Amino acid sequence: MKPPRQPIDGVLLLNKPVGITSNAALQKAKWLLNAKKAGHTGTLDPFADGLLPLCFGEATKFSAYLLEADKHYRAVLQLGVTTTTGDPEGEVLSTREVTVSRADISAVLPRFTGEIEQIPPMHSALKHQGRPLYEYARAGIEIDRPPRKVTIRALELIECDPPRVVLDVQCSAGTYIRTLAQDIGAVLGCGAHLTALTRTTAGGFTLGQAHTLTVLEALEASQRHALLLPADCLVAHLPAIQLDDADAAALCQGRSVPHLTELQGLTRIYTAAHVFIGLADADAGQLLPRRLIATQQA
User: Fold this and answer.
1) How far is residue 12's CA from residue 224's CA, in Å, rounded to a whole number?
2) How far, in Å, CA of 156 to CA of 161, rounded?
3) What is the torsional sign of CA 31, 34, 39, 41?
4) What is the distance between the terminal CA atoms of the chain, rounded to a whole angstrom?
5) What is the pLDDT of residues 16-62, one digit of tens each?
6) pLDDT tens digits for 156-188?
7) Where is the active site (predicted)?
8) Which of the 8 DSSP states describes residue 228?
9) Is 74:197 a contact under the CB 8 Å cutoff?
10) CA 60, CA 295: separation in Å to the nearest integer?
């Protein structure tokens, strides 16, 4: 019999395999760690693989900061074929001859670099009236979706052997790589869909740091727990302030504390013993509690 679930806190960098949902991968890791509370920081479709940071316990309070971070992908496109979903899981809509060259493809990529507009795909988890769009899509209902602004920070042609094209994409959160593939195919005049997708970075984390479910299964429980990163790794990009014990205790009790600092905005807070207690807003010489580690509160 499996022991009672423990209050485990931390971040696991998972290399999600192709063929399962992000939630299924999360639940498997949660079971392997025997954790109570868990969440992930951005869905990868079942056909996609790569970096999927998972948060456990108190780390889930800070998952939004990674969810909003830039992502990096390796995307494989098949030119000449469009599908209902923009990926290999959909039905083929059209097939066209591919006559474009590497030069043709290179010439259109700058049009998709910088701030662009995307229409979210119907086969996505984006909500409309409380229901994800994919539920409407499965019922054959088309919902009007206003375009949304996203930022493609870098778009590089890695391999080009038409109809197969491989792109390296660095983008803001909320970017749909399937839509990017479809839009590039439309501009080229032959259509395209995404056949493979690998997330290689998320925020400051890389795929090389990630662990597979197969490796996790082979480890002892203590070894699995040793792979967890501390919760503050999710907010390492923010400035940090160290407080004495009295001010740290006051902040943990939900009170603001005076602090002479030139910092403004969201700040990581640590005790005198270098223990992370959460986030505070620095404003006009005051630290106002924003998001705190529950186990540190008195």
Assistant:
1) 9
2) 15
3) negative
4) 34
5) 999 999 999 999 999 999 999 999 888 899 999 999 999 999 999 99
6) 999 999 999 999 999 999 999 999 999 999 999
7) 45 (nucleophile)
8) P
9) yes
10) 13
Among 9, 45, 49, 183, the one annotated catalytic = 45
Q: 168 catalytic, yes or no? A: no
Amino acid letter, 249: A
Question: Are the C-beta atoms of residues 49 and 18 closer than 8 Å to each other?
Answer: yes
d(CA 270, CA 280): 10
pLDDT tens digits for 98-133? 999 999 999 999 999 999 999 877 666 666 667 766
Using DSSP, state whether 154 is helix, strand or coil: strand
Q: Which two tokens stand for residue 117?
A: 């507009």
* CB proximity list for 22: less than 8 A, separation 6 or greater: 16, 40, 42, 43, 44, 52
Domains of the chain are 10-67+205-233 (3.30.2350.10), 71-189 (3.30.2350.10), 238-296 (2.30.130.10)
